[in-house]
Amino acid sequence: MSGREYPTHPRVGVGVILFRGDTVLLIRRGSPPRAGEWSLPGGGQELGETVEQAALRELAEETGLAPEGPLRLVDVVDSITRDAAGRVQFHYTLVDFAAKAAPGEAVPGGDCIALAWTPLAALDGLGLWERTHAVITKAAAMLRCGSV
Predict the structure, then answer these.
(1) 3-state DSSP call for residue 60?
(2) Under 8 Å CB-to-CB from 39, ≥6 apart: which residues?
(3) Which domain of life, per UniProt (predicted)?
(4) What is the CATH number of domain 11-144?
(5) Does the pLDDT value for residue 40 go beyond 50?
């Protein structure tokens, strides 16, 4: 068991909803929870880091990219995974930000085993966690309003 499994308290995680035109950058997770699933670039906040610093670091580690401008807070969601016995196996408080992508080529790194610029219209067929789909939809609405 890693220190992330069966925690004694929630861990803080960050995610970045990165847009390029009408596409969003998704990564395929390499580690639990949600290993093998499409998700947002992100990961755990480290001691001494602000959530924005963690988001920028994780984005760079997993994709090699940076935002074009400032990160915008989209939402804070809870991710609690229980094992077959009902015990909390993973518990994250996730802070999700949105931004437009700066120029550059995305390259998988860190916990990311694959990545894809995905049209917003194609999200329904990917089996995204419902909360991930919801924050992408919310961030896309913010983008249309000019808040991202």
Answers:
(1) helix
(2) 15, 26, 27, 28, 29, 128, 129, 132
(3) Bacteria
(4) 3.90.79.10
(5) yes
pLDDT tens for 81-139 read 999 999 999 999 999 999 999 999 999 998 899 999 999 999 998 999 999 999 999 99
Using the predicted structure, report yes or no on whether residue 2 has a pLDDT greater than 80. no
Residue 12 has pLDDT above 60, yes or no: yes
Parse the chain into domains and list their residue ranges.
11-144
* CA distance linking residue 28 with residue 52, whole number of Å: 22
Q: Choose among 115, 132, 125, 148: nearest CA to 34.
A: 132
SS3 143: helix
Strands 88-100 and 11-20: parallel
Are 65 and 24 in contact by the 8 Å Cβ rule? The answer is no
pLDDT at 30: 86
Q: Compute the distance between CA of residue 109 and CA of residue 30 in angstroms, rounded to an integer.
A: 10
Region label for 19, one of left (φ > 0), alpha (ψ between -120 and 50) or beta (otherwise): beta
